[in-house]
Amino acid sequence: LKLEESEVVDQFYSTSIVSMEDLLEFHADLLFQLNSYIDVLRARMKLIRRIADYMMEHDHIVNLEDHSLNYFHLVRHMHKDWAHVLELMEQPLGRSQLLFLKESRPHYPSAWDLEEGSLGIHRMQKTYQLQPKDMVRGLLDGVHHGTRFSTLECFTVARAIYKKHRYHDAVTWLEETLSLYDQASEQTKENYQILGFDVSQANNLYIKGLMHLNRYKDALKAIDRDPKPYLRRLRDRVEMRMMSTIDLPLEKPNPPLTGLQLCCRGGCPYRDMHRLTCSYNTTAAPFLRLAPFKTEILSLSPYMVLYHDVITPLESLTLKNLSKPHMKRRAMVMVNNLKVRPFIDSGRTSNSVWLASHENAVMERLERRVGVMTNFEMENSEVYQLINYGIGGHYKPHTDHFETPQAPEHRGGGDRIATVLFYLSDVPQGGATLFPRLNISVQPRQGDALLWYNLNDRGQGEIGTVHTSCPIIKGSKWALVKWIDELSQPFRRPCNR
Ligand SMILES: O=C(O)CCC(=O)C(=O)O
Ligand SMILES: [Fe+2]
Which residue out of 467, 470, 477, 478 has the highest number of ligand 1 atoms within 8 Å of its CB and is therefore the one to mutate? Predict the structure, then answer.
């Protein structure tokens, strides 16, 4: 079993908001095809109506008189015309539209997208302590969004959570699913049925979820409400469980809030004490006297500063536009018995692309700017990574320096002495970069860049720099990361080993 980073998965929608733009266009194309399919059906219906009317006129003639001319009409008509009518009826309809739908199917979002998206929603729920009943109505962490969930979306999320054995949450989402279904009109229910939704399936999962939570009485009630015979058979199982003394271990419904949850919500204790000073940096390079960097020191140890307005909106836009077509999910692949199987790294929901410092004029300018901003040597430095996060997108807590001491030795540049994180977009809700051990969280703002040192004076990894990207609630988070290697810096930041 081996893990490595690769680009095997090329189409991943849920891990990047920017790929959703393509999806919107794609969806519009599909709708266009469906409508034109209906037009074709309608035109055919009109034609058949006309022919049928014409045929009925003949019916008329035959009944009139026992006239041989009329018989001749009938013979000719039946031999000739009906053959053509049959041909017309047999002619396949809307072939090109059908073909379009069929051939584009491989590009539809996959089961993975659905799972990834569902888990993103769940992550959002857990981190920000949201209630499914608020979420389905578009109320997210105190802000009303114009979006609503239908029964179908609710059920998809519920099922994904159930598959992860999070029964308490799955049951809440299933309750929401069933209640949304009850409120739906008869016509909507019919539509759901055409789209493959079976309310008994939802009920079945709900009952099983309740059983996992030892809520047998509620399970029995749910069974009694559903007329499907296979659900009635569950009754025996529930009653048997009820009588047995061995209870399944119960999942705690409300574990205490973690520091991460508190901080992502902006409730980080003492966070403001870390805003030490703000200043204009004019000394690092001569040109800074003309255009100083607005610098906010967030922490002295480990050293961390936030620069304001160091990448212009136009530069951000250019980089985003140039990179859009190349953004990919960097999925991990599992190489197992020679089978290569990409798997969802749920620790990181984003698509990204590597950008070299000589990639284009903007990158060249940025590379010089990073050198001036940080005073680090940019010669031989690493490439940049441009990231766009997805639905409820996040990046689990991690450090940028390597955690195994051997790892840097195998790299030309040694360990990553510092990180510069440019924000290329505002994120209106969620999506902060959080340093839980330092109680520092930074809300992405287009134009800002965060610099921190990953290594201490002795060149050792600084565990305090553990950081995470909080799940995004609203907006599309774009970040550009630059890791600065240690080995080019002996004169810029000598270490006291
Ligand atoms: O997007 C962020 O806020 C953090 C990104 C990050 O930590 C990384 O790419 O190493
Ligand atoms: Fe990082």
Answer: 467
70 contact partners, CB below 8 Å, separation of at least 6: 61, 62, 64
Encoded tokens for 185: 């009109």
Residue 51: inside a domain: no
The tokens describing 383, both together, are 């490439």
For the chain, the domain total comes to 2
Answer with the one of 226, 243, 260 that is the final residue of a domain.
243
Q: What is the pLDDT of residues 321-378, one digit of tens each?
A: 999 988 887 655 555 555 555 566 778 889 999 999 999 999 999 999 999 888 888 8
ipTM score above 0.90: yes
* Residue 227 placed within a domain: yes
Whether residue 228 sits in one domain with residue 284: no
The Å distance, Cα 46 to ligand 2 centre, comes to 63
Residue 348 sits in the same domain as residue 473: yes
CA atoms within 13 A on the CB side of 243: 5
Calculate how far, in angstroms, residue 364's C-alpha sits from the geometric centre of ligand 1: 22
Mean pLDDT of the 70-76 span: 82
Q: Which domain holds residue 220?
A: 130-243
